[in-house]
Write a structure and sequence with these properties.
By secondary structure, this protein is an alpha+beta fold. It has helices at about 30-40, 70-85, 105-120, 145-150, and strands at about 15-20, 45-55, 55-65, 95-100. About 30% of the residues are buried.
């Protein structure tokens, strides 16, 4: 019997994925917006709780719906790469993930995502950074959705 990967388990995850060679791909407004469009396009596959698109990486707080986290990331990274049409590698291989354990963990990761641009001086306040869920431009699935879809 094979043991399923830890990201095949239902739950909510904090995910980080970086651009190939840490290129500042999302420093270009068109690229950052294209990733946000990709994020919205694949929403049927996950609940989106929070996100931030930094110049060279992305942080997500999401709950896969009916598919594995690996598949969600294939949709997002592959979908963005296809839309971008780059001849060069877009992403570093893989991604890092942390399965959310409880409300406190959820809130800690949410704050980290929203404060990340402020901490590196990309914005003075979290909601002033346009490529973050803190800006309020994309409808999110809040804590209630996390709480009813997580498995402890």
């Amino acid at each position: 019997m094979t043991i399923p990967s830890r990201t095949a388990q239902p739950g909510t995850y904090f995910v980080t994925t970086a651009c190939s060679d840490r290129r500042r791909l999302f420093q270009v407004e068109r690229n950052a917006q294209l990733f946000l469009d990709t994020l919205v396009h694949y929403r049927e596959h996950y609940l989106l709780h929070a996100f931030v698109v930094m110049p060279d990486h992305v942080h997500l707080l999401l709950t896969p719906q009916g598919i594995t986290l690996e598949r969600v990331m294939q949709f997002l990274k592959g979908g963005f790469s296809h839309r971008l049409g780059s001849k060069f590698p877009v992403w570093q291989r893989g991604f890092t993930d942390h399965r959310i354990r409880d409300h406190e963990d959820y809130e800690t990761r949410l704050r980290y995502i929203h404060e990340n641009p402020v901490g590196v001086h990309l914005a003075d306040v979290a909601d002033g950074y346009p490529y973050s869920s803190a800006a309020g431009q994309i409808q999110l699935d809040g804590y209630k959705a996390f709480n009813s879809n997580s498995i402890n």
